[in-house]
Each structure stands twice: as C-alpha cells, then as structure tokens.
Design a protein that fits this description.
This protein is α/β, with parallel strands linked by helices and about 280 residues long. The chain has 2 domains: about 5-105, 2-Layer Sandwich (60s Ribosomal Protein L30, Chain: A); about 110-275, Alpha/beta knot. The protein has helices at about 15-20, 20-25, 40-50, 70-75, 85-90, 110-115, 130-145, 160-165, 210, 230-235, 250-265, 265-275, and strands at about 5, 35-40, 55-60, 80-85, 100-105, 120-125, 150, 175-180, 190-195, 205, 215-220, 235-240. A 7-stranded parallel sheet has the order 8-7-6-11-9-12-10. The longest helix has 13 residues, at about 130-145. It is elongated and about 65 Å long. The N and C termini lie far apart (about 45 Å). The relative contact order is 0.13.
C-alpha cells in the first residue's frame, strides 16, 4: 500500500477527510452510493470485519507501525495518507481519536422487506437528529437483542462520523435502512407496532401482552417533542416506561435501552426457534 506523506492542507486526495461535508460525502458518487468516515482502529476493524470497502486511510505517523499496522495490511492497495498530529488536527478540524480515519464506500441500501425478513424485534427511529443519540441507540439495539433498525428520512444518518464512533461500530453489525412509508405499512411485514410515548391510554412496558407478540416494532421519537400525534395514532400499542420521583421522561437513547431490554425476545424462545 502507498504511504503518502502529507505536507499541506491542499494535498490532492485528502479532501475526503477535510473539506467534504457529511452531505457531500453521502452524495459524492450518487445519493445512495456515497462515502463515510470511520474513526478509530476498533471501529475500522468492525467495519472491515463486516465487509465494508476501504478507499483511503488517514493516519498519524506513529500509528503506521502501531495501532493501525494490521488495518493498513488488511486494506491492501488503498492510499495511506500520513502526517504529524498537529497537521492532521488542522486538516480535519479535530484531534483524531487514536490517530486513524478510514474513508469507506457506503453499502447498497437494503429494502425494508430484506431488512425485516428474519427479524422478530425491530426499532423504528422517527425524527431523531442528534448524532450521539443515533449512535447510542444503534449500540443498544445491537447489544440488547434487536434484529434491525428502520429510520425515517428526517432522522440523522447512521453513517455520520460521530454517530458511527458513538455506536462503536454497532451500526455495521445490525441491518438498517430508511423507512419511506408509514408505520401502518409494517403490518404487511407481520409487525405490530409499539410507540414509546406518554398518553392517557398508554400501557406499561412490562405489560405481558407485549411479550406475546411474535413480531414487534418499537418506535422511538425525537429528543424534544417525542413522536408525532399521527404516528402514535397509527401504532397498535402506546407504551410508557414507569418512573419514580415525578420524572416524566428519559433521554431517547436511555429510553431505547430500557425498551430493548424489556421487549427483547427471550433467549429460550430464540433457542426453540432455532431447533
């Protein structure tokens, strides 16, 4: 692989790490086939293990034979741009986490049908725009038994650099795609829907009826306003998390983790389904 010493901020080929915005990265080739940036050796390794295609690396000099050595070896002939820590921080606008960035090709988006085909528990993210929350929701979804994630188009891109980093690469481990239809469309795929919201007719998250659903979609809303009224009206269930001390809500990422754990398919049922 070519090791290229970067001496200036205008060096040809490094614009993917410096001047291109997240929107430009998404649309660099065409809307559904753009690029994204993975940051830190651990996250990059998860992406490579999941089959994502590397296109270029940006690496501090000291990591070429250190933390990034195995990554560089795995990436074959892709260019490896390198320089000192201060120059790279000036180039990217931030100090690199563990000194390594990797530009990767975005995967071909799955259809909703393909994403949900073998799923029993899925997450619908509706209008969540905070990158940290998106990353945290994906990490919890992967860790706590969710099979897939669907996002409305007004949600944050899961392949945003910060969202990817916060997820610790979990975004590469769980199938996801965009949901262009309405919540009621999920019924065609066999799902009942549970909207996480506080309403007069909401049921507790530990209500036994929820555990009996063979296929359940858990719908999470925005950090501020929550789910739109029309989305709540479409849902089969409206579900609340009981709380103490007069607290009426949780951050969406925290609420998602609670919901995923409570509503996951029990391990004994998974084993029975696999036999």
């Amino acid at each position: 692989m070519p090791i290229i010493e970067v001496s200036s901020l205008s060096y040809p080929g490094i614009e993917v790490f410096s001047t291109l915005t997240e929107a430009q990265l998404r649309n660099r080739i065409e809307p559904d086939k753009g690029l994204f940036i993975a940051e830190s050796p651990k996250v990059i390794r998860v992406a490579l293990d999941a089959g994502y295609e590397p296109l270029a690396l940006l690496c501090e000099q000291k990591h070429i034979t250190g933390d990034a050595a195995d990554i560089i070896s795995r990436c074959g002939d892709v260019p490896v741009y390198t320089g000192g820590r201060e120059l790279l921080a000036t180039l990217t606008g931030y100090v690199l986490t563990r000194g390594v960035l990797c530009a990767m090709r975005r995967p071909v988006l799955r259809t909703v049908e393909d994403t949900c085909r073998d799923a029993r528990r899925i997450v619908v993210i509706d209008g969540v725009v905070d990158t940290t929350n998106i990353g945290a929701i994906f990490r919890s979804a992967a860790a706590l038994g969710m099979d897939a994630v669907l996002l409305t188009r007004n949600s944050c891109d899961p392949l945003n650099r910060r969202a990817v980093r916060v997820s610790m690469g979990s975004v590469f481990l769980i199938p996801w795609t965009w949901l262009d239809g309405t919540l009621s469309d999920l019924a065609r795929h066999g799902f009942r829907t549970a909207a996480m919201a506080l309403t007069d007719d909401s049921i507790s998250i530990d209500n036994p009826v929820l555990a009996t659903e063979p296929r359940l979609a858990i719908v999470m809303g925005t950090e501020g306003d929550g789910l739109p009224h029309e989305t709540i009206a479409e849902a089969d269930y409206v579900v609340r998390i009981p709380m103490s001390h007069g607290i009426d809500s949780l951050n969406v990422a925290a609420a998602a983790a609670v919901a995923f754990w409570q509503l996951r398919v029990p391990e004994n049922e998974k084993k029975m389904a696999g036999t």
